[in-house]
Amino acid sequence: MDYKSLMEQAQAARKKSYSPYSHFCVGAALLCKNGKVYTGCNIENAAYTPTNCAERTAIFKAVSEGERQFEAIAIIGGKENEEGGFCAPCGVCRQVISEFCDNDFKIVLGTVDSFKVYTLGELLPYSFTKSNL
Ligand code: THU
């Protein structure tokens, strides 16, 4: 699975975004080490705080299906009437990723045609993880 294909799946997932409050649509595609891909979109709520980001939707779907080994996640976001583009994961999602992934986990940001690959270590340095407990 190349990162362009992963980004295409994130873009497709973004079309499912339920974001009637922010009108900001995000899609994510999570690549497992076994090659399977789990996608997710953001799912908002009238009470606002129960909102779930696209990245966490994908991760929770995967973990709830028994997956624990992850290679990369592609993320694409933007206003609902615009093309999706660079969308950095929020702090909560970075922390959730760090529960299951090492510093070399890849985070792919941008568009299908122009993206950059970051590592979790770059986006969440000095993290608090189970190794601290
Ligand atoms: N959102 C995500 O789904 N992922 C991110 O990384 C950033 C923010 C969502 C949450 C909310 O539904 C909307 O984007 C605006 O914050």
Characterise the protein shown here.
The model has no long low-confidence stretch (mean pLDDT 98). This protein has a five-stranded mixed beta sheet. It has helices at residues 3-14, 54-64, 91-100, 120-123; strands at residues 24-32, 37-41, 70-79, 106-110, 115-119. The protein starts with a helix and ends in a 10-residue tail after the last helix. The protein is globular and about 40 Å long. It has one domain: 3-Layer(aba) Sandwich (Cytidine Deaminase, domain 2), CATH 3.40.140.10. Helix content is 28%, strand content 26%. With 133 residues, the chain is an alpha+beta fold.
Topology:
Blueprint: H1 3-14, E1 24-32, E2 37-41, H2 54-64, E3 70-79, H3 91-100, E4 106-110, E5 115-119, H4 120-123
Parallel strand pairs: 3-4
Antiparallel strand pairs: 1-2, 1-3, 4-5
Give keywords.
133 residues, alpha+beta, Cytidine Deaminase, domain 2, 5-stranded mixed beta sheet, 28% helix
Concise description?
With 133 residues, the chain is of the alpha+beta class. It has 4 helices and 5 strands. The structure holds tetrahydrodeoxyuridine.
Tell me the number of strands. 5
Could you estimate the helical fraction of the residues in percent?
25-40%
Under CATH at level 1, the class stands as: Alpha Beta
- N-to-C order of helices and strands: HEEHEHEEH
Number of domains: 1
Shape: globular
Q: Which strand order spans the largest sheet, edge to edge or round the barrel?
A: 2-1-3-4-5
Strand content: 25-35%
